[in-house]
């Protein structure tokens, strides 16, 4: 087992973090685990800390994980990339909806204009928190060293 910066690497592809409170948390390295944490709006490293303050404070993101201390905004403008995530799933949804409703059900472009515009505006707002969470999780998946060294 290697120990560096409060992080241990076990032989079973796991990271063990030593939190500010002295407890140890185990972070599995599988992509499905990290993306599952992203979907639940939890810290991608430990899976315990919440990313956002709560339902009443929809757009308020915690600066650090309350459990392992991971700084969420890795650098200035870090979450700009989450707009691509949000754009990607909104655009994909619009294509599927348009194809299904126009070619499948035969609705005209005039009938679809307002509902699809509402989807175009509404989905990015509703999915804003998940876009940030998925962006952070993808970074954690592709660059584990940065996430293992940060306290
Ligand atoms: Zn954490």
The amount of helix comes to 40-55%
Radius of gyration: 19 Å
The tally of domains stands at 1
Which molecules are bound besides the chains?
A: zinc ion
Number of helices: 5
Low-pLDDT segments: 1-5, 9-13
| Head-to-tail CA distance between termini | 19 Å
Mean of residue pLDDT values:
84
Major sheet: arrangement of strands: 1-2-3-4
Structural class: alpha+beta
Number of strands: 4
What portion of residues belong to β-strands? 5-15%
Shape: elongated
Overview of the structural elements:
There is one protein chain. The protein is built from 5 helices and 4 strands; from the N terminus they run ββββααααα. The protein has about 150 residues and is an alpha+beta fold. The protein has one domain (about 1-150). The longest helix has 23 residues, at about 80-105. About 20% of the residues are buried.
């Amino acid at each position: 087992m290697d120990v560096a910066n409060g992080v241990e690497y076990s032989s079973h592809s796991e990271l063990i973090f030593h939190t500010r409170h002295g407890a140890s948390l185990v972070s599995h390295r599988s992509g499905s685990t990290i993306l599952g944490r992203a979907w639940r709006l939890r810290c991608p490293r430990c899976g315990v800390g919440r990313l956002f303050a709560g339902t009443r404070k929809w757009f308020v993101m915690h600066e650090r994980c309350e459990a392992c201390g991971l700084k969420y905004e890795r650098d200035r403008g870090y979450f700009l990339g989450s707009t691509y995530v949000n754009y990607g799933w909104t655009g994909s949804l619009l294509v599927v909806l348009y194809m299904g409703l126009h070619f499948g059900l035969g609705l005209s472009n005039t009938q679809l204009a307002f509902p699809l515009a509402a989807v175009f505006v509404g989905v990015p707002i509703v999915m804003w928190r998940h876009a940030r969470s998925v962006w952070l999780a993808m970074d954690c998946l592709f660059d584990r060293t940065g996430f293992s060294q940060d306290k």
